[in-house]
Write a structure and sequence with these properties.
- The complex is a heterodimer of chains A (about 550) and B (about 100).
- Chain A has about 550 residues and is mainly alpha-helical.
- Helices cover about 75% and strands about 0% of the residues of chain A.
- With about 100 residues, chain B is of the alpha+beta class.
- Chain B has one domain: Arc Repressor Mutant, subunit A.
- In chain B, β3 and β4 form a beta hairpin.
- The longest helix of chain B is centred in the middle third of the chain and has 13 residues.
- In chain B, about 40% of the residues are buried.
- Classes of the chains: A mainly alpha (about 550), B alpha+beta (about 100).
- β1 of chain A pairs antiparallel with β1 of chain B, so a sheet runs across the interface.
């Protein structure tokens, strides 16, 4: 760039900026333009022009908030010592419109729900059980008063916090009382005893409850699986909760209970009943807290899968010496028990982990059976078992693919959930900033404060930022929560695994502790990269604000 | 009435420069060279001083074909304020006096 061009550019910069500068700044612009003629070097002229343009643009920007001082200079060009001008009316109207529009969102029920849930989920970081316990005592009292069997069952399963059931005997007693009353009113709800036992297998009443469960649902493996859990809890207590390896398979009572479970005609962990109960309660309108409803489904216990795995290994391992001794029929029976229980579990399992366990059990049983049949020379049976194993392998693969899709979906749900929660936080912070600004202006009206023009400008800024922030956060919160509102709706309407999946995805948002983020996002460098970009943008924004807002707050000279 | 002004080293430097010859009218470019401040820093200070009534300004016609130049001088109040500030912090003034004058902006 040659010398003339640099001077031309410097001239153009100030001249162009003059077009956008407020009336009161134009004389200053012309002054800088005139001085440009006397700047010695072309580079210095360019720097002068750039500095002058910056001054004019700053004046233009601040005039948006301060209002024009058009009449504040005399014929000589001298500025009249000015009082601070009031905030421009249009800015005030825009800020008020932002606040009104933001408040209008509160008329939408889903917006209220989004805000409430976001706040609850922030609270859940510090009090993990709190979101699921609120209002349950009142609900229990209402259920007892109305003799509402479903509501009694629902509260019986929720009234004692999960994980601390053992240590809260008054709540446990209340839970049992509510459950008994629910079953008395509607015997179809007897399955709730399974949940109560599973939560606290070493409670004194557990065996009695299992007995009642077995009478109500004969042929189900679940009561025997629960009985095995009771025995395991008893043994664990005897060994100061440090069970030595192999202790279970040496215990005749545990073996008897597991043997009875593996010989049962069916497997039902009452997943569908539990889901239907939560959905019935939701439809009745008695419980409107979505977190409580979704958690009611997801927090429900399933049988101890470790016990199932341990017993299946015991059967397979005890079959191998029989096979070596030539007792092929006895060995085959051992293996068949495992495969058969896998089959009935697969038919009755509703949750993914139960289905996965069932597939693994079948595979575990069929593999030694195929070699055994080959050894016996039964090629057709061995081939059939081979086909079965191939079919299981394909199903496992489909299951893994589906699981991978589900994880991807869950990642998206968690990402959006983060955005929703940040929006809610942004809404609260914006409202706080607006309130601070409002308090200042109220004090100004009451003439309790004597502050400088710059401080007034700062509070105008705060008010505008607060109002704009409220509107922006409200729009974000409303629109990003809509998919979750749809999930909640689906959870109440759908049946089976689809409803379960909706509840799961919903809870990914509503209850951050539900999702293991490290596991979900491990190896995804892109996620961390964008977190980094967002963090840097936030830091840059804070730096800009600090430059324009905090810097003017430096100590003032007294004239 | 108490009028507050932002206490920055650059403002103090400009005031000091005006105090060197309080009755003289000064050009913006000359002030820039004498204080070592660039236009982007100097003019906001001049604008602020003017708005608070510490500085008076005027236009001076130059050669035909060239725009008139803007001139600045402290008002009586400005002079009073600048002197008061000099008394408040003589050490600071001393430090400011060490700033080399005549630097290219």
């Amino acid at each position: 760039m040659d010398r003339n061009r640099r001077r031309w550019l410097a001239h153009w910069l100030i001249h162009f900026s003059l077009r956008f500068s407020p009336v009161e700044a134009r004389d200053w612009g012309r002054a800088m333009l005139a001085e440009l003629e006397f700047v010695k070097t072309s580079w210095a002229a360019l720097a002068w022009g750039a500095g002058g343009a910056t001054v004019l643009w700053r004046q233009a920007f601040f005039s948006l908030f301060r209002g024009s001082r058009g009449a504040a200079h005399g014929p000589s060009g001298a500025f009249i010592p000015a009082k601070e001008m009031p905030m421009r009316k249009s800015v005030f109207i825009a800020a008020a419109a932002c606040v009104i529009a933001s408040l209008a969102f509160f008329l939408a029920p889903s917006f209220n729900q989004a805000l409430r849930l976001s706040l609850q989920s922030w609270g859940a970081i510090f009090r993990p059980n709190a979101p699921f316990q609120s209002g349950l005592s009142g609900l229990a009292a209402r259920a007892e008063k109305q003799h509402d069997a479903n509501l009694l069952a629902f509260t019986a399963l929720r009234i004692a916090p999960y994980g601390s059931f053992r240590n809260t005997s008054p709540l446990r007693a209340k839970s049992l009382r509510l459950a008994d009353e629910a079953v008395r009113l509607d015997p179809r709800l007897t399955w709730i005893y399974a949940d109560i036992v599973a939560r606290n297998p070493d409670a004194p009443e557990s065996k009695d409850l299992i007995k009642r469960l077995r009478q109500w649902d004969p042929g189900n493996a679940l009561p025997d699986l629960l009985l095995a859990e009771c025995q395991e809890a008893l043994l664990a207590r005897q060994h100061s909760y440090r069970l030595p390896p192999g202790a279970l398979v040496q215990d005749s009572k545990w073996l008897a209970a597991m043997g009875a479970a593996f010989s049962a005609k069916k497997y039902d962990s009452y997943f569908n009943q539990r889901l239907a109960l939560a959905q019935d309660v939701a439809r009745s309108g008695e419980v409107s807290d979505p977190l409580l409803l979704a958690w009611a489904v997801l927090s429900s216990p399933i049988p101890d899968l470790e016990n199932i795995n341990d017993y299946s290994l015991y059967l397979i391992e005890s079959g191998q010496p029989l096979e070596a001794e030539g007792k092929l029929k006895a060995a085959s029976q051992q293996y068949w028990q495992v495969a058969r229980f896998g089959q009935i579990m697969r038919l009755g399992a509703e949750s993914e982990i139960e289905r996965w366990t069932a597939l693994a059990l079948q595979k575990k049983g069929y593999e030694p059976l195929r070699s055994l049949e080959s050894r016996k020379g039964n090629t057709s049976e061995a081939s059939l078992l081979g086909y079965q194993l191939q079919s299981l392998a394909r199903e496992s693969q489909d299951f893994a693919t589906h699981d991978s899709e589900r994880v991807n979906w869950l990642r998206t749900a968690v990402w959006i959930a983060d955005y929703i929660q940040l929006s809610a936080l942004g809404l609260l912070l914006s409202a706080l900033v607006l309130v601070i600004s409002g308090v200042y202006w109220l004090a100004q009206l009451g003439r309790r404060l004597d502050t400088t023009g710059r401080l007034k400008l700062l509070f105008i800024w705060l008010g505008v930022i607060g109002a704009a922030g409220m509107l922006l956060s409200s729009v974000e919160l409303y629109f990003t929560y809509r998919p979750y509102a749809a999930m909640l709706n689906q959870f109440v309407k759908l049946k089976g695994a689809a409803a379960y999946f909706s509840a799961n995805a919903f809870l990914a948002f509503a209850y951050p502790g539900m999702v293991d983020r490290n596991a979900l996002f491990s190896g995804l460098w892109k996620v961390y990269f964008w977190y980094g970009v967002i963090s840097l943008c936030a830091i840059a924004l804070v730096a800009i604000l600090a430059r324009h807002v905090i810097k003017p707050l430096r100590p003032k000279l007294a004239g | 009435m108490t009028i507050r002004l932002r206490r920055s080293p650059q403002t103090s430097r400009v005031l000091e420069q005006f105090l060197e010859a309080p009755l003289e009218w000064r050009y913006g470019y000359d002030l820039s060279r004498e204080t070592g401040l660039k236009s982007g820093t100097l003019y906001p200070i001049l604008i602020r001083l003017s708005r608070r009534g510490f500085l008076e300004t005027s236009w001076k016609a130059t050669e035909p074909g060239t725009p008139p130049r803007h001139l600045y001088r402290l008002t009586a109040r400005g002079l009073e304020m600048a002197k008061a500030q000099r008394q408040i912090n003589p050490a600071r003034r001393q430090a400011l006096g060490a700033v080399p004058a005549g630097g290219e902006p």
